[in-house]
Amino acid sequence: MDARTGEVLYSQNADTRLHPASLTKMMTLYLTFDAIERGQVSLDSVVTVTAHAASQPPSRLGLRAGQKIQLRYLIRAAAVKSANDAAAAIGDYLGGDEAGFATKMNRMAKALGMKNTTFRNANGLTREGHMSTARDMTLLGRHLIYDFPQYYNLFSRRTADAGIAKVSSTNRRFLDAYDGADGIKTGYTVPAGFNLVASAQRGNKRIIATVFGGTSTAQRNAKVAELLDLGFARAPGKTTLDKPAPPALMADATGVAGPEVTGAEDDTDEGDAPVAAAKTLRLAAAPPASPRPMARPGTAAHDSEAVELALAKALEPAAPATAPVAAAVAEVTDVVAQAASPRPAAAPRETVPVAAAGFVQAATPQPETLAMNDFSEDTPAEGDAPDPREPIFVQTSTPQPETLEMAGHKNPTDNTVILAALTPPAPAPQQEREVVARASSSGGRNWGVNVGKFPSQYAAERSLLKTALMESDTLGDALRKVARGKTGFEANFVGMTKAGAELACARLTARASDCTVIGP
């Protein structure tokens, strides 16, 4: 999706309802930022951890029932570490309890145009009926960037001070590997698989890509990188910035129900003060009832990531066992914002199906155990469990707001484009490796198509991928193979019939692409 315009540059099964896992925390944080800007709470507000929040499985910050902690640290823990206990503590604080906060989440989702999303809890642990889509998560990501640019920088942090611990980002591998990447959120449970809403900016383009159903962190990141690359290639260099309209709930002047705010000190610190951040209002009394639009009949129930839901029954568009691949690319602008997340405490892993964006066919996600607090990306809250049998990729890009300068981050240009992109997966350290995707050359399938010679293996692989996407009808079942020669790397599609090869070549030639039929 091009963030500047909200145009979807590429999508596949973008409206398939799947388990969002910890991508859910994007909405939890969105509502938190909204409450702060309304003056209902502040970053310095002291939250008393409920027994419900303290009982959440990993990933965790390590909160204890009755413990008091500033809201800023819970925000950091939820955004950077993806701590389930921190997200649940925020939900109980702003909504009264899990069900109350879920109602607020669903109201906001409706206001943002997330038509196929239903939330049941604040952290994304598997719960029957807790579903979303790649398109909806991309829309949410775009709103986070444009509606709260002063906090967006939080999602690019590799580490953060969560008050009781220093936490590491679950998305640091992708942030370090992909050029221009600056967010946004990872997610993992056995039923969901490895999910990621990513954004990257290069020049005046910003792309956002969402993937659901990855089989591993590496596979998911590789797919997201491919999508982001595709997005940057398709997004126009210049276009008019058309930021998303703020939801009606944000335009409402009345306050949203929430905890009472006291104190007159500045509610930002060096770690959280955004550049050009909006002024925070302090209230001495509890804010009025929530002004948000009529809540859709939403329910909220306790969900444990440790609980693996093989299938979500009686759901509105139930998520298929085999999750189809959905991808969308969107452009977003960088925003500066910071928040910290507390240290996660070891707890049971959550299980959620994996959905990933990319060019892979939907596969059924398999349960994986959640990783503990100090695990690497996609561990605890997101749950890094054994790779699912087959990846279910759902990508979606979310538009992003103009970038703001913050914490030393570069200010993104207004003309940013959000597109699903990821740095190409690092090739295995194998020299002269032949990359073959699918299949057999038996049964008369000993013909093929050559689409050119390239100076590097990566360039050849990339050309094969782009060509396969462009001509999926004729090349969808062909194998992609890179052969190293004396003068370069040959990009070939093999395992085809003579008729199939000739047809594919004819169509590529019609597109002004180089093509040569290869015979046995």
CATH homologous superfamily identity of the largest domain = DD-peptidase/beta-lactamase superfamily
Instruction: Please count the beta strands (DSSP E, at least 2 residues each).
Output: 12
Order of helices and strands: HEHEHHHHHEEHEEEHHEEHHEEHE
* Beta-strand share of residues: 5-15%
Taking the alpha carbons of the first and last residues, their distance comes to 42 Å
CATH architecture of the largest domain: 3-Layer(aba) Sandwich
The total count of helices amounts to: 13
Structural class category: alpha+beta
CATH fold field value of the largest domain: Beta-lactamase
Level-1 CATH class name of the largest domain? Alpha Beta
Strand order of the largest sheet: 5-6-7-8
Mean of pLDDT:
74
Unreliable runs, pLDDT <50, ≥5 residues? 251-424, 430-441
**How would you name the oligomeric state of the polypeptide chains in this document?**
single chain
Shape type: elongated
Largest sheet: 4 strands, antiparallel
Tell me the number of structural domains.
Answer: 2
| Backbone CA Rg | 23 Å
- Give the helix proportion (percent range): 25-40%
Family: Belongs to the peptidase S11 family.
Keywords: Carboxypeptidase, Cell shape, Cell wall biogenesis/degradation, Hydrolase, Peptidoglycan synthesis, Protease, Signal
Protein name: D-alanyl-D-alanine carboxypeptidase
Domain Peptidase S11 D-alanyl-D-alanine carboxypeptidase A N-terminal: 1-214
